[in-house]
């Protein structure tokens, strides 16, 4: 369903060059659960952003059902980013002037829809009492769980999760991993960046990045 072909990305700042991805090729099948590991700065977040249609590579292609994500017309590209992909950003990217429940509903076409599912997920993530708070009033782990619910509420095909348990205590981390596992069992495709060995144990494949290169597959 997803094919990355020879992806290269170099960030530049003035004359400085920061290579982030170096000729990355990867095929992802529907229902795959892929863990992406590697040292800090190895290109993991860049890879996820590139797959998510948020970061155009300098070279190479990202194909979703054989169509180049970066050559889609803007309407289709927006649909891909909004419907096909759910993203948990490493820095959460919650909207500061919206409450927890409003932030989650941003992912829905109809704000009033799926309220039962939202309540269920808030409950599971121990967030029910916090749904009227603003991001600045939340702990880091609470922001992370809000970002996670927002990413899966619209039932995307692909979940791109950048260290989604990085700030969670063991109990919340376990709950969130079991929700990701449920998502995957329902044919959802998962690309998960993680430093924690326990979370990679759910994956059917682990790929390791090193200086922007995939060193195993
Ligand atoms: N916007 C940017 N401008 C310039 N360089 C960048 C930018 N974003 C990332 N980089 C550089 O690209 C490389 C890969 O960064 P990336 O964020 O993908 O790494 P990462 O593997 O996610 O690291 P971490 O584990 O710390 O989150 C790093 O050298 C980083 O400094
Ligand atoms: Mg990162």
Automatic annotation (TrEMBL):
Keyword tRNA processing listed? The answer is no
Q: Which Pfam families match?
A: ABC_tran
Q: Which GO terms describe its cellular component?
A: plasma membrane
Record-linked InterPro entries: AAA+_ATPase, ABC_transporter-like_ATP-bd, ABC_transpr_LolD-like, MacB-like_ATP-bd, P-loop_NTPase
Q: Which GO terms describe its molecular function?
A: ATP binding; ATP hydrolysis activity; transmembrane transporter activity
Q: Which residues form the ABC transporter domain?
A: 2-215
UniProtKB keywords:
ATP-binding, Nucleotide-binding, Transport
The reply on keyword ATP-binding is yes
Q: What name does UniProt use for this protein?
A: ABC transporter ATP-binding protein
Species of origin: Draconibacterium aestuarii
